[in-house]
Specification:
Two copies of one chain form a homodimer. With about 150 residues, the first copy, chain A, is mostly helical. Chain A is about 70% helix and about 5% strand. In chain A, α4 (about 90-115) packs across α5. The complex binds manganese (II) ion (MN) (4 copies). Chain B binds a DNA duplex (30 and 30 nucleotides) through α1 and α3.
Amino acid sequence: MKPPSRAAKKAVRPSALQAESLQQTRRVHASEIAEDYVEAIADLSAAQGEARVVDLARRLGVTHVTVNRTVSRLHRDGYVTARPYHAIFLTAAGRKLAAACQRRHATVVAFLRSLGIAEKTAELDAEGIEHHVSPATLSAFERHLRRRK
Amino acid sequence: MKPPSRAAKKAVRPSALQAESLQQTRRVHASEIAEDYVEAIADLSAAQGEARVVDLARRLGVTHVTVNRTVSRLHRDGYVTARPYHAIFLTAAGRKLAAACQRRHATVVAFLRSLGIAEKTAELDAEGIEHHVSPATLSAFERHLRRRK
DNA sequence: TCCATGATGTAGCATTAGCTACATTTTGCC
DNA sequence: GGCAAAATGTAGCTAATGCTACATCATGGA
Ligand SMILES: [Mn+2]
Ligand SMILES: [Mn+2]
Ligand SMILES: [Mn+2]
Ligand SMILES: [Mn+2]
């Protein structure tokens, strides 16, 4: 069945741009777990001096099995040290990534709060939004925060 | 190796809240593809009267194989009709979801644009951000837009 | 009419990400 | 020191999401 030629070009969002946006979204999702893990490892290291598997499992809301497998991927990718039966520590690359993520996370939460959004809602939404915030958009958030201050 | 008791409780983000946030993020990601698909199907239907597999593949930036399998899941979940060798159409549930997603998408893009973010950046970031925007946050975005207008 | 081409469908591979069940190691405590 | 419990590790399952390669269907033009 051929599309009836009516209405024809309705000047809709171009396919190419949406495809590019969705591809970027998929790329973001591929690196997202690494970001949340290094952030959590940094938080736990600051609070307790180290990050253990159980602590990560509790904080990330998954089982220790999932943590194990993800940590081995983080190790494969050079973000963490991983010795059996020892706590997990960030490498230099891991610390750098964690610092950027912590900063971005805080900015996104502060920005949402500045719009009058409740603390808990801001935290819930920010955990997902943060990864999709490009450097340009992060700058815009910071600019808005400075203006509002 | 036990954590040295120094610094002890550093009043960091509570584990329970972060775990809950990450669980919500994972739930969002599980329904995200359905949202992007019904939105694309609605767009294509409006523009051409129907949504074909090739068109969806082009617009979503994936192969037609991926489209096929996802469409069958959408059919399983009641969002689309699916007859072999025919175009794909939204069910009532699909149209309802698509309308909400289109509206939310437009709001997120407009909100980012109102912060001075470039058109293309807004579009790229919005494609990922939109799914993590809760009803409360969407309201805040709309409120901000009304205020700025 | 018929057939080349485009559209669609399917088989099967890889990776990621979650899980339960069970094995092993480490540790806290008597 | 010895042992129970906690922590950690591993085997193997499911599901989602991407892909290539190949098979089948549908159609428009010669
Ligand atoms: Mn996050
Ligand atoms: Mn975060
Ligand atoms: Mn999207
Ligand atoms: Mn996301």
